[in-house]
């Protein structure tokens, strides 16, 4: 697919999820028999986490819990890439407190509307949501302490640009913490070209080594994989959709190669520019 077609596909898919107000087919637990809550508990959130966010903020998306691993502190400024309805943003807002601030960025208007509505009804004054693409962040240079992202960067067609932008907006010494889908083996061509599997966080995923290489190429140091688990196919697309895309042999060959990783990294403390690896 062309880059502009991919952007339209992703916007359309996640706009539909926002309008449905729950799991979206191809992007969560629709058709799986699981609830939003059970999916979130299964990927690393606690019952306490689920109780801290406004109703409607958790849509059963994501592939890990980057907030739990970010060691957020009171007063920090946090940026959430691909913030959706605000689930991770609201959790981060709890941790940084009233002296801190959280900025969520999302390119889907319906998600932004939902997130802003959730912020308003919850009375949270330390979180805001901005329209923008993660390849071109509406955020000033060296202005945030921590960047979070949950199963979103795989949807970008230019991942090196995403990490370059993350590096630009982080303060020296700032931290990056992402949960994302990567591959341990290349996908067969028909699957790599599937529009459904792209919006389902699979077809756009990179090989693990390539993904980590883009983080290093942006200038980040102290890059570490904090956790890694096989991500079940039935959390990606429903069984009827799987049957329509994959044969038994194809499914067996890829079911262990789709992996959720949790990666941390840091912008060097002495780096005062957004110049990638040349600081």
Give a description of the structure.
- With 279 residues, this protein is an alpha/beta fold.
- It is 37% helix and 20% strand.
- It contains 12 helices and 7 strands.
- It has a 7-stranded mixed β-sheet, sandwiched between helices.
- Helix 7 links the parallel strand 4 and strand 5.
- Helix 1 runs parallel beside helix 6 and helix 7 packs parallel to helix 10.
- The longest helix is centred in the N-terminal third of the chain and has 18 residues.
- 48% of the residues are buried.
- About 3% of the residues have low confidence.
What's the short story on this structure?
The chain is α/β, with parallel strands linked by helices. It has 12 helices and 7 strands.
Integer average pLDDT: 79
Total beta strand runs? 7
Reading side by side through the largest sheet, how are the strands ordered? Answer: 3-2-1-4-5-7-6
- Low-pLDDT windows of residues: 24-32
Q: What order do the helices and strands follow?
A: HHHHEHEHEEHEHHHEHHE
Radius of gyration: 18 Å
Distance between the termini: 36 Å
Task: Determine the fraction of residues in helical runs and give it as a percent range.
Answer: 25-40%
How much of the sequence is in beta strands? 15-25%
Topology, please?
Layout: H1 3-20, H2 36-42, H3 47-52, H4 66-69, E1 77-81, H5 87-96, E2 101-106, H6 109-122, E3 127-131, E4 144-150, H7 159-169, E5 170-183, H8 189-192, H9 195-199, H10 208-217, E6 221-230, H11 239-245, H12 248-254, E7 258-266
Parallel strand pairs: 1-2, 1-4, 2-3, 4-5
Antiparallel strand pairs: 5-7, 6-7
Helix pairs in contact: 1-6, 7-10
């Amino acid at each position: 697919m062309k880059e502009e077609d991919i952007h339209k596909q992703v916007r359309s898919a996640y706009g539909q999820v926002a309008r449905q107000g729950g799991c979206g087919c191809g992007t969560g637990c629709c058709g799986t028999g699981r609830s939003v809550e059970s999916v979130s508990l299964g990927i690393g959130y606690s019952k306490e986490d689920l109780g801290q966010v406004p109703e409607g903020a958790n849509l059963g998306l994501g592939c890990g819990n980057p907030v739990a691993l970010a060691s957020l502190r009171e007063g920090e400024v946090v940026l959430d890439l691909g913030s959706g309805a605000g689930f991770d943003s609201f959790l981060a807002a709890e941790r940084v407190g009233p002296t801190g601030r959280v900025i969520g960025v999302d390119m889907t208007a319906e998600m932004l509307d939902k997130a802003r509505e959730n912020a308003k009804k919850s009375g949270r004054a330390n979180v805001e949501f901005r329209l923008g693409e993660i390849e071109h962040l509406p955020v000033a240079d060296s202005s945030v302490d921590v960047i979070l992202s949950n199963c979103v960067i795989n949807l970008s067609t230019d991942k090196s640009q995403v990490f370059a932008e993350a590096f630009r907006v982080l303060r020296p010494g700032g931290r990056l913490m992402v949960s994302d889908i990567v591959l341990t083996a290349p996908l067969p061509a028909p699957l790599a070209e599937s529009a459904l599997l792209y919006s389902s966080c699979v077809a756009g995923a990179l090989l693990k080594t390539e993904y980590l290489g883009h983080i290093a190429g942006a200038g980040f140091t102290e890059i570490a994989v904090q956790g890694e688990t096989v991500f079940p196919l039935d959390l990606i697309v429903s069984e009827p959709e799987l049957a329509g895309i994959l044969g038994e042999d194809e499914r067996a060959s890829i079911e262990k190669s789709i992996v959720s990783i949790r990666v941390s990294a840091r912008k060097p403390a002495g780096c005062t520019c957004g110049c990638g690896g040349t600081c």
